[in-house]
Amino acid sequence: MSIIFSKEELKQVKSSNVIVPFIDHDAVLYKVFVCGDKFHVVTRPSITLKKLLSNNINVYNFHSDTVSKVTLDSSQVQEDLCKSSDLSPLSEKCMKLIPEWVKIMRSVLNLSLFGFDIILESGTKKPVIIDINYFPGYDGFEDFHEIYQTCFIKQQYLNNGINFNQRNYNIYNSI
């Protein structure tokens, strides 16, 4: 991916590229991991626009899959660009929106395992979903393996027309 700061550099973009606006988001990214009807939100650092602008560059190239990793293995420059002083958890107001978003995405995508990224627009704090990930890494999703196992077993019951309940799960788990 690239962040382009000048009209001259924008002219170099190939027609096969997708151009989207950069939304300043105070260098904080919220990764939502979904497994069945459960979800978990992890706060991660992101790119800070202020640092990019202060570096006097026309184009900043980066790999989107390394920007918000738990441990960045990229250059010191990228690490500096991603440091944030406030990695606050997602507000309660935004957390209340996530179950409905998960429900809609599960239905539309017909998926049980996926993730999506949320940023909060600087100033307004308006939540914006910027990416949907098919089967993400689930780094930071507490008890993921147990939740995944329950999700998988529940899906098997539903596929076979059997009503899933905790008693069925306990019997299956004791085998």
What does this structure look like?
Helices cover 35% and strands 22% of the residues. The chain is an alpha+beta fold. The strands form two sheets. The chain has a four-stranded antiparallel beta sheet with strand order 3-2-5-6. Strands 1-4 form a two-stranded antiparallel ribbon. The longest helix is centred in the C-terminal third of the chain and has 16 residues, at 144-159. The relative contact order is 0.18. Residues 71-78 have low confidence and may be disordered.
- The mean pLDDT is 81
Largest sheet report: 4 strands, antiparallel
Distance between the termini: 48 Å
Q: Which series of helices and strands comes N to C?
A: EHEEHEHHHHEEHH
> What is the number of helical segments per DSSP (H or I, 4+ residues)?
8
Computed Rg? 20 Å
Strand content is 15-25%
| Number of E-state strands | 6
Quick recap of the structure?
The chain has helices at 7-10, 49-54, 64-67, 76-82, 92-95, 98-109, 144-159, 166-174, and strands spanning 2-4, 28-35, 38-45, 59-61, 113-120, 127-134. The chain has eight helices and six strands.
Keywords summarizing the entry:
175 residues; 6 strands; alpha+beta; elongated; 8 helices
Element layout with pairings:
Elements: E1 2-4, H1 7-10, E2 28-35, E3 38-45, H2 49-54, E4 59-61, H3 64-67, H4 76-82, H5 92-95, H6 98-109, E5 113-120, E6 127-134, H7 144-159, H8 166-174
Antiparallel strand pairs: 1-4, 2-3, 2-5, 5-6
